[in-house]
Amino acid sequence: MEAPGSSKKMIATQEEMVEAKVPLAYRDQCTHLFIPLNKYRQAELYLPWKCSSERHTYEKCEYELIMERMLQMQKIREREAQLKSQPIPLLPKTANA
């Protein structure tokens, strides 16, 4: 399964996300990293220095997704700006012109 407009594929299945009780806000292309991170956090009693490498990997994945979305939005805005800058013809073109 792949999210529309994203280059990353969903690795975690819906069943895995439900089983791990992942909140809806965290169900994206980085969920496959979020599930083991939360298991590790619970095992280590949420001590911040214990799971730094897993957290870094998850946050890097999230950052890459955000940057990808920003680039897509920039392309959309550029296309819209091009469409707005094109002049609207006052007289329609005829078939013989």
Number of strands: 0
Shape: elongated
Q: In DSSP terms, counting alpha (H) and pi (I) runs of 4 or more, how many helices?
A: 3
Low-pLDDT stretches are none
Helix content: 40-55%
Radius of gyration from CA coordinates: 22 Å
Strand content range: under 5%
Topology as H/E string?
HHH
What does the average pLDDT come to? Answer: 90
- Helix/strand class: mainly alpha
Report how far apart the termini are: 50 Å
The major sheet is characterized as: none
Membrane topology: Peripheral membrane protein
Main location: mitochondrion
Organism: Salvia splendens (Scarlet sage)
Subcellular location: Mitochondrion inner membrane; Mitochondrion intermembrane space
In short:
It is found in: Mitochondrion inner membrane; Mitochondrion intermembrane space. The chain is built from three helices and no strands.
Descriptive overview:
InterPro entries: NDUB7. Keywords: Disulfide bond, Electron transport, Membrane, Mitochondrion, Mitochondrion inner membrane, Respiratory chain, Transport. It is found in: Mitochondrion inner membrane; Mitochondrion intermembrane space. With 97 residues, the chain is an all-alpha fold. The protein contains 3 helices and no strands. The longest helix is centred in the last third of the chain and has 34 residues, at 52-85. 8% of the residues are buried. The model has no long low-confidence stretch (mean pLDDT 90).
